[in-house]
């Protein structure tokens, strides 16, 4: 599985592979170089690496089990929906953190 992300600073898309390593580039946008999370970079990189590995594992399991279960239908939504919901909640929470940080920075450097 090749997860892709978009930098909220420069707006460019990139494969998550590019922010996992090397250590000096880990957690940074491969285009603008901005940290994808100044506070929790290590946690972010660890989570992204695990997500990509687990995603690949799921693909591999499904591929190996492709022809088995001739009398079973799997409801794809029961697999995809919880992941989609969790990703949506992550997008919302991380965008909210960014907005809060920007507001605090604007207050510090803004017009008085
Ligand atoms: Zn960027």
Describe this structure in words.
With 112 residues, this protein is mainly alpha-helical. It folds into two domains: 1-72, no CATH class; 73-112. Helix content is 51%, strand content 5%. The chain has two helices and two strands, in the order E-E-H-H. Strands 1-2 form a two-stranded antiparallel ribbon. Strand 1 (4-6) and strand 2 (13-15) form a beta hairpin. The chain binds zinc ion (ZN). Zinc ion (ZN) is lined by residues 7, 9-10, 12, 29, 31-32, 34.
The percent range for helix content is 40-55%
Main beta-sheet strand count, sense and barrel state: 2 strands, antiparallel
Nearest-angstrom radius of gyration? 18 Å
Low-confidence stretches: none
Small molecules held by this entry: zinc ion
Mean pLDDT: 94
Structural class: mainly alpha
Integer count of domains: 2
Order of helices and strands: EEHH
Q: What labels would you give this structure?
A:
112 residues; mainly alpha; 2 domains; two-stranded antiparallel ribbon; 2 helices; 51% helix; elongated; binds zinc ion
What topology does this entry show?
Elements: E1 4-6, E2 13-15, H1 41-64, H2 77-109
Antiparallel strand pairs: 1-2
Would you summarize the structure shown here?
The protein is mainly alpha-helical. Helix content is 51%, strand content 5%.
């Amino acid at each position: 599985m090749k997860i892709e992300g978009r930098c909220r600073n420069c707006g460019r898309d990139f494969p998550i592979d590019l922010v996992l390593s090397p250590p000096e580039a880990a957690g940074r946008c491969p285009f603008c170089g901005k940290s994808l999370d100044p506070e929790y970079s290590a946690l972010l990189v660890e989570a992204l690496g695990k997500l990509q590995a687990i995603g690949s594992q799921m693909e591999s399991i499904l591929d190996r089990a492709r022809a088995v279960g001739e009398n079973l239908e799997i409801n794809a939504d029961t697999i995809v929906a919880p992941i989609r919901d969790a990703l949506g909640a992550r997008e919302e929470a991380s965008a909210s953190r960014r907005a809060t940080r920007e507001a605090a920075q604007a207050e510090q450097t803004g017009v008085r």
